[in-house]
Design a protein that fits this description.
- The protein is an alpha/beta fold.
- The chain is built from eleven helices and 18 strands.
- It folds into two domains: 176 residues, Medium-chain alcohol dehydrogenases, catalytic domain (Quinone Oxidoreductase, Chain A, domain 1, Alpha-Beta Complex), CATH 3.90.180; 139 residues, NAD(P)-binding Rossmann-like Domain (Rossmann fold, 3-Layer(aba) Sandwich), CATH 3.40.50.720.
- Bound molecules: zinc ion.
- Zinc ion (ZN) binds next to helix 2.
Length: 344
């Protein structure tokens, strides 16, 4: 089959579009013919240096059609079903780690990720546990479905499970154009919150408004983000900040929060080391939260809202399977809104 894989780490020229053996299903698994796959920043990190297995097929997000099912899979899936996949492979059957046995699969000790520890979806075919597959709504194209899994699950976990959004919350979503940022805008609006968001270009802010943002801030055009956020909230600050940027905005994030404000971070694309003013933390006071592992239950909850049409995949640009290198460059340059999707 055709696939995009790496034999070593490096620049975009390390990406190889070529032939790999067709995958074979193991117990509990299904074989999918991939309809579309999507990029994550993680792919750039893997390609540039963090990959540990070679040859390795990239692609953590994907959607496709079921073409074969392991006889022991114990699933309601049928050949021909259209599904998207949660890429986190955890314990199954009766052989459970202590966390899975206790109902905390988000902390599964044997967790492996498709596209990281296992071959991914930038290929004509991929295998996945049947339990990781979720039905794609009939009217939704694979291109849109592939844009969903990781951004949806991450943003849902951070905003619903961790920050416990309430309809009366004012929410600041950093990096409107990112996969999790754009999905975070949708989820916060779905919950009835007032959404303020940031980006470095006005066309991204126009897109953010289309997806539900109430107030938009071009961070390149304001002297102080936190002053601007306070002006937009009657001097109060926001209840929740959702951030995937990290070090560059950490201090401003803290200043944007009101009393008892909640900050949840799910990425550190600008770096992970930064000074911290502890007086703000204890004085205001604030609640600081990370993302961490995500459970099957929250994925199922989020997919229920996708089935109801309340949440959509956000496709920024599309590329062919032999255009993954160009897609990596576009992601590096950040000149897109939502997800970069590979159409197969
Ligand atoms: Zn486990």
């Amino acid at each position: 089959m055709k696939a995009v894989y790496i034999n070593e780490t490096g620049g975009t020229d390390a990406l190889i579009y070529g032939d790999r053996p067709d995958p074979e299903i193991a117990p509990g698994e299904v074989l999918l013919r991939v309809g579309a796959s999507a990029l994550n920043h993680l792919d750039l990190n893997l390609r540039a240096g963090s990959a540990r297995r070679f040859p390795h097929i990239l692609g953590c997000d994907f959607a496709g059609e079921v073409v074969q099912i392991s006889p022991d899979a114990g699933t309601d899936l049928q050949v021909g079903d259209r599904v998207l996949v949660d890429n986190r492979v955890k314990c199954g059957g009766h052989n459970l780690c202590q966390h899975c046995a206790a109902g905390h699969d988000q902390w599964c000790a044997r967790q492996q990720r498709i596209g990281v520890d296992l071959d991914g979806g930038h290929a004509e075919y991929v295998v996945a546990p049947a339990i990781n597959c979720y039905a794609v709504p009939d009217e939704m194209q694979f291109t849109e479905a592939a844009a969903l899994p990781i951004a949806l699950h991450t943003s849902w976990h951070c905003l619903i499970t961790q920050a416990k959004l309430q309809p009366w919350d004012d929410v600041l979503v950093q990096a409107a154009g990112s996969g999790v940022g754009s999905m975070g805008i949708q989820i916060a609006k779905m919950m009835g919150c007032r959404v303020i968001t940031t980006a470095g270009s006005n066309w991204k802010l126009d897109e953010a408004k289309k997806w539900g943002a109430d107030e938009v801030i071009n961070y390149r055009e304001v002297d102080s983000l936190s002053d601007t956020v306070r002006e937009l909230t009657d001097g109060q600050g926001v209840d929740v900040v959702f951030d995937c940027v990290g070090a560059d905005v950490w201090h401003e994030n803290m200043l944007c929060l009101k009393q008892e404000g909640r900050l949840v971070i799910t990425g550190v694309t600008s770096g992970s080391q930064t000074p911290m003013d502890l007086s703000i933390l204890h004085g205001r006071p604030l609640h600081l939260m990370g993302s961490g592992g995500r459970s099957r239950r929250t994925m199922a909850d989020a997919m229920k809202m996708v089935q109801q049409g309340a949440l959509r995949g956000i496709v920024g640009r599309t590329f062919p399977l032999d255009g993954v290198g160009e897609a990596h460059q576009v992601m590096h340059d950040r000149d897109f809104f939502g997800k970069l999707v590979i159409e197969h």
